[in-house]
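Following up on my earlier thread - several people asked me to post the actual chain instead of describing it. Fair enough. Here it is, all 144 residues.
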Amino acid sequence: MTERGEASDRPDPEADGSPRPGAEEPLARIDPNDVVPVKVDASDPAGLRSVTEIRKPSTLGGVVYLAVLAAALIGVVVAATGAWRTGVSWLALALLVAAGTRLALPDDDAGMLQVRRKFFDAVVLIGMGVVLLVLVATIPDQPS
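Reply from S.P.:
Thanks for posting it. Predicted structure:
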């Protein structure tokens, strides 16, 4: 029977004991041995800082990351306001600066520039920067 009381030719999915499609699965019990213990010292202000508190970068890589982020934001704004070649060039140069800084700094000083291993980070950043510069150089002007 359907919700309207009409007979249905479809088999009832719950008739064989299997849950109906879309039914939520029961919550699994968390095994305490699977959770990594985290020790927080209540007397350490860095461990319990406020979420609204602004912290300055503690590494040179963090400072460069903020500069790269600012340059990328400038590039997006410039591209959105009309001069797309200039804006995309800003983005590309920001990525290339990030790659150069990532290669130059040791891992301990890379800060937010460090995502994976140094070689992988640099290859991805250089690749994206070069691709953007190639696009800027090769896309023809569109007639107005």
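Residues 60-80 form the longest helix (21 residues). That should answer part of your original question.
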